[in-house]
Amino acid sequence: MPLNIDKDLYRFRHIVKGRIRKDLKRFMSSKDMIGKEGNQRVRIPLPQIQIPRLRYGENPSGVGQGEGEGEGEGQPGQGGGMAGDKPGEHALELEVSLDELAQIMGEELELPKIQPKGQKQISSDKDKYTGISRVGPESLRHTRRTFRQALKRQISSGTYRGKNPIIVPIKEDKRYRSWKPTTQPMSNAVILYMMDVSGSMGTEQKEIVRTQAFWLDLWLQHQYKTVETRFIIHDAAAKEVDRHTFFHTRESGGTLISAAYKLCLKIMDQDYPAQDWNIYPFHFSDGDNWSGADTSVCLDLLEQQILPRVNQFSYAQVESQFGSGQFLNDLEGKFDTDDRVALTQIPDREGIMNSIKELLGKGR
């Protein structure tokens, strides 16, 4: 009896997704999994799923009843241990596509689908099947149409036998799917990450930001055809850097948040017109700013220049023993009822999952 491999594979994938959902909070707080990211796939350790193995019992008759003299019978091997019949512990790593992982996260966190605001004026050609043709490659042969044509031909010619129906298509009966290239607009997005790298933002705070950024990227890439990312670091001054520098810059100096917002606006003005792009600025800080006067400048920049252009502005405040946390209070006081602003606090790694739900839960 042939094995139904497809059915078994579907059942196995269903079990895997269930285990990922069960441990999603642990995965989302772990920095180790991010290092396993590959080309559109990620390797996830699932030690709960046991690898099937054969177990041999006693066989009182048959081959192999004599005295054993080889090293394999109860003798220590090169590893220094004794042979045994107990199964070992295995941590099974399974590959899951980033799209599957994003889908699981969206379902578990009940994230709404994003409705794009802007549409970049770039088009892609896609083949669309539009009809049936008499010529074409065999890979596109339309089986049902071909046999229907052969049946019609045999009936009209009187060669069809109802008691012994044998339908053999000839060349003139074959029908093929036809297509033509169609131009489709691509809906794209840009993520502008900004992070405070002043003296109060330590290594653990930046690791939390790095982990959270992975999951934010994952969801937005699941929603859009193409996602670009830009990175800004700031203390008392701001500059654009690459991804590696963003997450590994050593902390120092004071904090002037308005410098980051001004640079963010400059990048948007130069490269990302609001009518063409879905724009997502994310700012990470411990909540310290140089002065109340600079905080007022930040609030004005947000209200008058940034918010009118973006899908959503997100601010995530990372808990730090050196940070005052005041900036979150200032943002809440100004934008608490504004749907274009998403605010959250990340007390530690365990808070990453709830923070992401708060940032992405508006579906903007």
Secondary-structure blueprint of this entry?
Elements: H1 5-22, H2 24-28, E1 41-46, E2 92-97, H3 98-109, E3 123-133, H4 143-157, E4 176-185, E5 188-196, H5 203-223, E6 226-234, E7 238-241, H6 243-248, H7 257-271, E8 278-285, H8 292-306, E9 313-318, H9 326-335, E10 341-346, H10 352-360
Parallel strand pairs: 5-6, 5-8, 8-9, 9-10
Antiparallel strand pairs: 1-2, 3-4, 6-7
Count of individual domains? 3
Q: Report how far apart the termini are.
A: 52 Å
**Residue ranges: pLDDT <50 for 5 or more in a row?**
71-77, 121-125
Task: Based on the coordinates given, report the CATH architecture of the largest domain.
Answer: 3-Layer(aba) Sandwich
Q: What summary fits the major beta sheet?
A: 6 strands, mixed
What's the helix-strand series? HHEEHEHEEHEEHHEHEHEH
CATH class of the largest domain: Alpha Beta
Task: Classify the oligomer.
Answer: single chain
Structural class: alpha/beta
What percent of the residues sit in helical stretches (DSSP H or I)?
A: 25-40%
